[in-house]
Here is the input.
Amino acid sequence: MLLAAIVAILVTMALTLLRGLLGPTACDRMLATNLFGTKTVLLIAVGGHALGWESFVDVALLYAMINFVSAIAIMRFFEYSSATAPLSTPPQRREGDHE
Amino acid sequence: MDLMVLLAGLFNYWVAIVLMMSGFYVVIARGNLVKKLVGLGLFQASVFILYISIGKVQGGHAPILGALIERYSNPLPQVLILTAIVVGVATTAVGLALIVRIRAAYGTVEEAQILAQERAEDAAQAEHPDDPA
Amino acid sequence: MSELWAGLSALCLALGSLLCLTGAVGLLRFPDFFTRIHAVGVTDTLATPLLLLGLILQLGWCLDSFKLGLVVVFVLATNPTASHAMAKAALDAGLQPQLPDPPARRQDD
Amino acid sequence: MIERLLDLFLLALLLITSLAAIRLRDLFAVVMLFGIYSLSAAALFMTLDAVDVAFTEAAVGAGITSVLMLATLRLTGRYEQPPTHSPLLPLGVVVTTGAVLIYATLDAPHFGDPTAPAQRQVAAHYLEASAGEVGVPNVVTAVLASYRGYDTLGETLVIFTAGLVVLLLLGIQPLQPHCPTRRPASEQVVLQVIVKMLIPFILLFGAYVQFHGDFGAGGGFQAGVIIATGLVLYDLVFGDGAAQQVVPPRWLPRLAAAGVLLYGGVGVYGLLKGHALLDYRVLASEPLAGQHLGILLVELGVGLTVFTVVLAIFYAFSSRGWR
Here is the structure.
């Protein structure tokens, strides 16, 4: 069952990364990063239990915390970048250009 | 068969090298200074991965002494990388601060535009050597 | 008794994994940011405690399971908050939800 | 088997992420991918038995570095201009260098080989003798603070210097009493209530990591970053330099210097007692007790320096960017 859970988490991580790559808006990338963070917490917790890593719970706790802080930081970036000084606009397309 | 053994034994190092080279490519091929620093960060993280891969021992445990554990992974690369990570973020911060100042001085963080401005200034200086500016 | 715990733990792990996967599929397949955050925020907030509860049931009474309990509490507090904050930030940044008839729906609230 | 699977999967994620980061020109997306990259790297470190490294990478790479890069983007613009030069020459250089490096690995000992030279030299001594010589279960802490305390002193000085350089370059701008551009979104009540509840626990966790580093993952470097992160969170959510009222900017250089001095002082005390620099055995009547006390003090110095430097860097960027 633990192995199945690990595989499920890995698949979720891959799909999340795909959303992060596809975009299309910056908000989607923000969401993908946040979700990838929570999935890393789960991976550390389940993997650590299954494989017997040392003090994996401390690491999982730290990840959960850092993930929240970076989500808030990214959110603040959004708020202010749209509100105050205009950011330099891209040459042609605005969002999610893959060249 | 031989190739498979080689692949299994060296795969971690090869991936680390490819990651390193992708960071290196960003540093030398892209003009945006922030992007260059991101490239430097990628390069840095790949060096960390290389070192930690070297320190891993098959069937080993994390080097925290316990009663029933017989084999540990190598603590030395971990110590080196642990401090390198924190030093890395401090130096990245210095780089970012420099970029902020460059942006304040030149109005851009694109290498090509900064160089063009520098050349224009140099040319103006050459034409009017008495000008104190 | 221990078989009961093992069964419960397996059930929790299975449900958690399933929720994880549904959330990821929703993240990938839904049409716009607000539906995606809906898919992910809700499932993820339940999936993480379920998976960790499965682990706690396997570990039994020990310091590690207490700390995992702390992770559960932390995730239960922060995950919905982060989702809420992100959605609010996106709305304030000017991202509009895709609605069937945008002007009429936006008028009445 | 599962371990190897995890290893391969995470390496594949890292490859995809870094290749995508090269292609994207929206720098915000690049920073997001960089965050994902360091999270996967940290998970990879867990599978490679490097708990302490994973701990540090999570706190520093995913947390602080992304925040700083976003703050810089805020000040310098979000989009990269298309490259002006042809990519062929750099590509050639990169491919050649990579090929040479890969050729060099062909003779290297294979991954996980217990008989590799790297595993047999001084590392074997640390693993065998540290229980008797230093008496700390976490060998990484023992090597970091005791065997190689001299290195760590140097690293602490580098961090201190980097903090000073950032302060010199950017300075901490004085607070403006009221910012007219503040948006209602920054007054998120839910967020403020939750954060108010969480911050004490974050600080407590930081203290736990600081003092539990001898027995499990953790230590001064990580604890400093975690406590600073708690204050960063406070400042981000409550805005208007809330954290500066808790730790005023003028304290920062002094506190950082105090951390370095604490570390150096412990070292010099050994010299004054007629032993080598950073010989902790002189600190107490018994050698092991001395080692414990020395490691405690040294980690405290490191934690103080890292905490203040991270906070100073955050103040320097946020006082320009975020208000």
